[in-house]
Every structure is written in structure tokens, then in C-alpha cells.
Amino acid sequence: MKRLVKELKETGYMGMQTPVEQVAFVLRKFAEWFPFENVDVMRGNKADITPEFLTDKMVVKRRGGLCYEINPLLLLVLKTLGFEAELGAATVYNEGKWGLHRTHAIVLLRINGENYIADSGFGSRLALSPLPLDGDEVTSPAGTFRLRTHATEKGSIAMESLSAQGDWTICYVFDWKTVPWNELSKAKRNIHENPRSPFNKQLLIATILPDGTQSINEERRHRKWKDGHEETSPFENKQALIDSVRLNCSSSLAEAVENYTTPSQYQPKKH
After folding, report:
1. Where is the chain membrane-spanning (predicted)?
2. 157 CB neighbour count, 10 Å cutoff
3. Is residue 270 domain-resident?
4. pTM (two decimals)
């Protein structure tokens, strides 16, 4: 983690005045450095989640990952920086349905005696700032978010986002309980193998940009701006997909996508 901490300090971390600003800076850099991507799921890489695995994949190779990779790396960095941080687990809620139980890894934070969460692994729906429990809402290029005490069958705290219609909707729910590190590998296996998993169906790479969000799958690149404008650019062939990943992400991620999209695996879809 020393390498990442050194990079953070060299790129502006030391200029942040408060702990909340410091964590927000780390979250912004994580969004810049580590895309949300499921290439390992699609390629069947079921290696256990260890600090060594995360260092090799994300710090050395500059790949991204899913929540059970990005947020544990975030946890290790925040602890190295001196923050009181622990691993937590949430259950995603989407379109009226619960996702796989407690498979979304998050970071539980205590800052100046108050409870916050930090999350760099929720696709492109990132607040880019720690969310205080029952505190102020936070706005980023991805939207507006808040953390509220909210009793449900899956937990007592909800991370919520503000919809275009002005309603608050639940993104995920959790209890303020520390979970052991070995739960990460269990969540990874569940995401890989469970037919209800949304991440073992097709390629997904999602990032947040200064002016909005973008996502790439095997069919297209999709951009959404803060003003609500959206644009979809279909891929005509495999090379167009790889070129888009190389343009928007790291060369190592583009190489991983190219290895995944071998002729025996890749069948371009008709538009």
C-alpha cells in the first residue's frame, strides 16, 4: 500500500485540510485509477482475495475490479493513512428486488467520532465523498446520495440516491457490523457462480468522469452527462471494443479484454 499512499501524497492528498476532505480526495483518485470491471468474472479467475492479489492486479497492473476488490484495497489504503476503517457488507436493492445477500463490500469509517461509509466499488454510482450517517447529502457527477437509518429486512442503514423525479431510492442496505476478510472470497465465488448474479452474464466496465459517467459492455459504449443527456455508441466488431477500452482505460485492462474476446468466446451481437 506504500506505493499508492506515496502517489496520493504526491498528487494532492497533503493539501486536504480535514479528514473528510482527505477521504474524498482518496475516493476521487480511486475513481480515476480503478474502473469497475468484471473481466476476471467473465474469464473465470476465482483466485482468493488477498492483499497480495489486490496489489498485483490493481496497484502493479492498474486493472480495476468489482466491489470485493476495489473497496478492500480502499480499506487498506485508508488504514495505512491512519483512518479508523473496517470492512462492511451490504445487500443491493435494484428495481424493487434484493440482490445477492451481503455481497457488496463497503468501508465503514469513524471520523471525529461520527459514522461514515466510503465506497469506490459501486459501478459508476459513486458519491466521491464519505457519506455521513443521517447527515448531509453528497453530490457528484453520478448524482446525489445520502446515508440514512432505515429499517429493512436486509439491514438497518440505507444508502440512497436521488432520482430524476426527485424521490429518494434505496441503492443498498447494511448493518453497522464489521465482517471478516474471508467473506470477500465467499462473495467473489457467489458473484462468479450464482445464476442471479448480474456480473457473470457479459462484460461490464463502468467509470465516473468529471462531467458524468460511462459504461462499456460487449455491444456499446454509453455516456451519460450530468444534465441527463445520454449517448450510445455501438461497437461494430471486436477491435472497436478493444480500442474503446484502450482509449478510456489502462493498457492492461485492454489486454485482459482482448484475451477474453477470443474467437471461440466472442460473438458480436447485431444492433
Report:
1. none
2. 22
3. no
4. 0.94
